[in-house]
Amino acid sequence: MTEAVIVGGGPNGLAAGLHLARNGVDVQVLEANDDIGGGARSAEYTLPGVIHDVCSAFHPMGVGSPFWKEVDLESYGLRWLWPEIDCAHPLDDASTALLHRSIDETAAGLGADGGRWKAVFGDVARNFDDLAHDLLRPIANVPSHPVKLGLFGPRALLPASVLARVFRTAQGRALFGGIAAHIYTRLDRPMTASLGLMIGASGHRYGWPVAEGGSGAITKAVAAALVEAGGSITTGTPVLRRRDIPDADIVMLDLSPAQVLSLYGDEMPGRIRRSYERYRMGSSAFKVDFAVRGGIPWTDPACGRAGTVHLGGDFAEIRESERLRATGSMPDRPFVLVGQQYLADPTRSAGDIHPIWAYAHVPFGYTGDATDAIIAQIERFAPGFRDVVVATHVTSVAGMTDKNRNYVGGDILGGSNAGLQTLLRPRAALDPYRTGVPGVYLCSQSTPPGAGIHGLCGYNAAQSALRGLGELP
After folding, report:
1. Residues of the chain above pLDDT 90, percent
2. Pfam families recorded for this chain (predicted)?
3. Residue 460's CATH number
4. pTM over 0.85
5. Is the peptide bond before 449 cis (omega within 30 degrees of 0)?
6. Is residue 430 included in any domain, yes or no?
7. 190 belongs to a structural domain
8. How do residues 144-164 score in pLDDT, each as one tens digit?
9. Residue 197 in contact with residue 159, Cβ under 8 Å?
10. Residue 449 phi, psi (nearest 5)
């Protein structure tokens, strides 16, 4: 029987193991931490009974993942829950742009920009599943839906700062800018409109749901499916050297390229090793979890009905803060994401004490303390916020790496999305999952299609491994 060892029990490692196990491979997962999940875990960070997401929180790409749907994670206990409003973006004039799952409702709230919003996102949302089939895999493949991809491509290749000019109101530009900022790089660079288009469209297709009980419920369901398929999971087993990996026909690495180099660099072909050495990190986050009494006192009550709140001011401010961050300077007002997962999932609260998840985009490897900057951004749109905070838990950039060795320099996306690396990660190749070492594959979010709790990096890498065994045509 073919044997596989999966190094890393994050969503992609588990997905790779699950797909291999469902295809008759004997799978063993080794996880360094005492619990599985990687970026999809939950914990009582502040007070007993108050559940915080460790990293990932909202899952528009997760609920729409073709692999999760194929596995039917709901049958393993996962339950998706939706907030009333997916995302709010307040401005200093007390107005707020709102992203609803319904594109019509979103457009209606944007006034003069309503028609423009539908023109930018309408066909992408309608065609999302077909586009995802082509885009959520290595880009160097023959597309299955070339016409739809051809319509999407010209917009996706634009800098976000250029596409934002389509919108004439401050609200329309800010709402798009906050979504586009998820690409985590300068918004005046080519291709930075792409992720904003996909995340916005996926929200209109599937919404921005949370997992009941915390994001750890997603990996718990994947793990249950893996064990049912015959796989095994061992926690508390760090892999620091080659000899820590048992002999197997297939080795799947849910690791950063730097970690792969430390294990297999001496065996990798020179051109592949050099590509891994050139791979750039750059998407650092500084996170603060709050326990608050009664909720955040937003100036606009609509923000209190939104699962996610983007705090960054108008588009010009977001563009400038991302430029500063990307060039190594800490903005006075960083872009901050606030999560109110308890609105959709009250099981995360303890009475009237609710968990608030917040992180700021900060320069790569930032060594400072962004706690006050995050609080100031929330206070800017919710005066009195400090008065309702009853407990905090801070995860610095260094703390991100301590919690997850894949987060090199606090990079939660597994690599910079600047330049061609947006499309070609970790290297330019028809099959970027192959490391050049026979039987060894990279399956982390440093491979296509990149970050997100969709499992598709692992699934695609497992497909590559199966092809290598001659199991697939």
Report:
1. 88
2. NAD_binding_8
3. 3.50.50.60
4. yes
5. yes
6. yes
7. no
8. 768 887 888 899 899 999 999
9. no
10. -95, 15
